[in-house]
Design goal:
GMP Synthetase, Chain A, domain 3; Rossmann fold; binds guanosine-5'-triphosphate
């Protein structure tokens, strides 16, 4: 994946909210025809990707964080540590509430969890088509007193009212970053693109110009093992033997460091322990080989 020439902003945003507040409706509206990735396979990881919104200048990856919605578990009133880890890692959290039913116990529970993380929380007051606008200021005040939200955006996910503004607000919280996903690729394995991109990023961060941005990372295997650990086998493709040597480093030191740094990010993203194997292979002129490009999940315009 080439780095875009102009500045590109990207990042992960978690959506939280009790059942029925309109999370799926919002996603359908935002992603619409631009739907890039929707996995209907049973979850291989705990953080499901809801959808990916891509424009010329931005990519927002929306994550579902199932753990936070649970009021009770076997351990009682406990909070899923995985969900908390995710919420700490994302750029922003969208907290959806339903203004037509008002503030409920479910909302209060989620707010308590949100207080445990430092990530900016955008309060999204959904279903404003169901209430008179005069009623909104008092509702906003009620939420305002419960938590210090980074922003409060009233919307109707159903009609699309004010959703553009919500996207603008989200964008202000995104750092400059790569386009993690291709524009129009439909895949059952959305996580693999991100995992590959994170490994590639760590290689570039740990090397100098001698390793071009054109290196590619292909995920050969990614599966959840019986013990819950996600096994990842990845191949790093370079064009020359000298590049292979650089990436492996003295006694494998550089590759080890790349693996360590990538794993930390990947574990935070997936919410699971991982075991990762990395290989470096030389594939001369791989950039000109169409089939290889497709195997690597590359866009044709890349
Ligand atoms: N009037 C109105 N109805 C909405 C709006 N957004 C969602 N709904 C309706 O609310 C219901 C629940 O919406 P969903 O998008 O399924 O809610 P969800 O949060 O994804 O629900 P879970 O999957 O149970 O977590 C559906 O009947 C939607 O049509 C809105 O802005 N206005």
């Amino acid at each position: 994946m080439e780095q875009p020439k102009h500045s590109f902003k990207s990042g992960f945003v978690a959506i939280v909210g009790r059942p029925n507040v309109g999370k799926s409706t919002l996603m359908n509206h935002v992603i619409g025809q631009k739907i890039a990735i929707m996995s209907d396979k049973p979850q291989t990881t705990r953080n499901k990707i809801h959808g990916v919104y891509t424009t010329d200048t931005t990519q927002i990856v929306f994550l579902d964080t199932p753990g936070i919605h649970k009021r009770k578990s076997k351990l009682g009133d406990y909070m899923n540590q995985t969900a908390l880890n995710t919420l700490n890692e994302v750029e922003a959290i969208l907290f959806l509430v339903d203004v037509s039913t008002g503030l409920g116990g479910g909302d209060r529970f989620v707010i308590e969890q949100l207080k445990k993380v430092n990530t900016p929380v955008i309060l999204v007051m959904n279903k404003i088509d169901q209430v008179h606008t005069d009623a909104l200021p008092a509702m906003i005040q009620t939420y305002h007193e419960l938590h210090e939200f980074a922003a409060i955006v009233p919307i109707s996910a159903l009609t699309g009212n004010n959703v553009d503004r919500l996207l603008d607000v989200i964008t202000t919280y995104l750092p400059e970053g790569p386009q993690y996903y291709p524009n129009d690729q439909i895949t059952d394995h959305p996580e693999q693109f991100v995992v590959a991109e994170l490994i590639r990023e760590k290689i570039l961060q740990n090397t100098r110009e001698e390793i071009p941005h054109s290196i590619a990372v292909a995920i050969e295997d990614m599966k959840v093992q019986d013990n819950g650990v996600v096994y990842i086998a990845a191949v790093i493709y370079v064009e020359r033997d000298s590049q292979k040597g650089i990436i492996i480093g003295k006694k494998g030191a550089l590759l080890k460091e790349v693996g360590k740094q990538a794993r930390a990010d990947i574990e935070a993203l997936l919410g699971s322990k991982t075991f990762m194997e990395l290989w470096v292979k030389v594939k001369k002129d791989w950039r000109n080989q169409d089939r290889v490009l497709r195997d690597l999940g590359f866009r044709h315009d890349a």
